[in-house]
Amino acid sequence: MLLPSSITLLPFTNADAEFFAALATDERVVRFIGYGQPWDRQTITACVREALEEEPLDLVGASRWFVATEANEAVGIVFCTRQETCGELGYWVSADQWGRGIGGAMLDSALVIVPRAFGITKLSARVAPGNAASARLLVKRGFKLEKRDEELEHYMLG
């Protein structure tokens, strides 16, 4: 396995919209996200618009998106949304980068940046039951499975 040399999380900008659209329309990437189908342009545009909003980070619902880069190439997206009692993390890795440790490196970077940016200590993540790779990434970093329902597994850290 070729390990990532260095992952940098940069704030999401309008210039990253096409990279996000490529992820959101890739059947492999969205297999465990939303309804498991590629997203339409309207949904992608709405998400990008939300990602670019700069709401104060102490407001419930405020979010920040980051583009994960390796050697100046976008390889994934990380986002965090403030909830009532924690910040909810999410991450998407370009399917072309799977199997290289990119997801873990992205998560490691997010675990440093997100708590500091949001001023929080508790983080959550939701994972589709069939996404064992994502669940392993979280557990390896100290997240604990809190509950399961028909659609998602809910993990907590802190």
UniProtKB/TrEMBL annotation:
Domain N-acetyltransferase: 7-158
Keyword Transferase applies: yes
Keywords carried by this UniProt record: Acyltransferase, Transferase
Enzyme Commission number: 2.3.-.-
Superkingdom: Bacteria
Keyword Zinc appears in the UniProt entry: no
Molecular function terms from GO: acyltransferase activity
PANTHER family linked to this entry: GNAT FAMILY, PUTATIVE (AFU_ORTHOLOGUE AFUA_3G00765)-RELATED-RELATED
Protein name per Swiss-Prot or TrEMBL: GNAT family N-acetyltransferase
Native source species: Glutamicibacter bergerei
